[in-house]
Amino acid sequence: MQKLATMWGVGNARFAPGTLGSLVAALLAYPLLLLPMGWALMMVAIVLITVLGSKAAHAYMNAHRINEEAVLHDPSAIVVDEWAGQWLTYSTWHLWMLFVAGSTQAGMELLGDMAASPLHLFYGFVLFRFFDIMKPWPIRWADRKIKGGFGVVFDDLLAGIAAGTVLFAIYFFAPWISGTMMESQV
Questions:
Q1: Long-range contacts from 62-68, C-beta under 8 angstroms, 24+ separation
Q2: How many angstroms separate the CA atoms of 148 and 59, rounded?
Q3: pTM summary value
Q4: Of 65, 71, 94, 114, which sees the most CB atoms within 10 A?
């Protein structure tokens, strides 16, 4: 279980283990999102990663106690939470796309064209790292108040939802901001 907590050693990196964990998660997302229903498989995987990752984080923290009572809160070596949050960033974006498309068929066509865009993956990575590091409310509240293995993962899930929503807003409003929407209508 502790191997899962560190993503099989990724979290043991000496420099920026959380960023490295997010990068590995983004790279793992790419081939999955190339599959016809990859975004749906990713959503199922997020549930599994959250459940198993919470247990793995709890086991890791118990195995690395400072003393009999104290357990490190969200040790930097635990990066399974970055995996769950990074993938939730992409899944949130996909859910928004389906919601706005107006029909399941239109949404599926749109997702088929955009699901594994390297630019989309890059922006999702940057946005997730921003929200995970800065921890605006309610992410900071969750990080401080929810303890244990689930607490380690939960604040990253909130960061993933925030990052995915901003990623969608960028995609949705970019044509109006850049003026390309007006040019295409003329």
A1: 63/2
A2: 10
A3: 0.87
A4: 94
Which amino acid is residue 41, in one-letter code?
L
DSSP H helical ranges for the chain: 2-5, 17-34, 38-63, 80-101, 104-114, 118-134, 139-145, 148-178, 180-185
- Domain boundary assignment for the chain: 2-185
What does the pLDDT look like over 60-90, one tens digit per residue? Answer: 988 887 554 545 677 888 999 999 999 999 9
pLDDT tens track for 10-61: 988 999 999 999 999 999 999 998 887 788 899 999 999 999 999 999 999 8
User: Tokens 């997730």 map to which residue?
Assistant: 128
Task: Compute the CA torsion angle 134, 138, 139, 141 (nearest 10 deg).
Answer: 100
